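cron nightly-structures :: item 1 of 1
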Amino acid sequence: MMGVSAQNNRINLAIAIWEWPSYFDPEQRLKGIRLDMAEYRRPDPKTAPCKSKAAGLYMICTLSKHAAEAKGYADAMMLDWRGYVAEATGANMFFVKDGVLHTPNPDCFLDGITRRTVIGLARKRGIEVVERHIQPEEMEGFSECFITGTAAEVTPVSEIGPYRFTPGQISQQMVTDYMNEVQPVPAQVQMAASL
């Protein structure tokens, strides 16, 4: 059955597993990656199922990442349909100001599992986390920035278009805490450390 309405088609599922290297260049990642400002915006939730991790929603992300890489950037940051800071092409955004984490409210893009994990880890450390709409010009007042995602893990950002950040204490702490959460130290190393 062909066409937009293909309700009688059988659904096939395939799962592939392979070892995944670092999503970004490891040297660049340590210094903080550079992001371009994307041309495309995340769509209005009334126009697409924005809370789903659907292939069709990644088309503008792929185009934006390719355009950024062609200019020498590692990725691109997208605004939402209203002009607020949204996300990178496949990762959620976090900013630091005066020891407080600020992250865009995921009301029109994916509320990532890694994002939620990092919020929990930050709160466990007593770091205040504010989920809110962020205007692009507010980036000038943030000291640190990092992105989170399944592939990106926790990756510090040094630049988004004209805005500059310095990977600092909170970014480094979130990198460490996240890695400890998802890649626990082997039992024999834990035992040796406790002796």
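cron nightly-structures :: done
The beta strands are 33-42, 75-80, 85-88, 92-97, 100-104, 129-132, 144-149, 153-160, 163-164.
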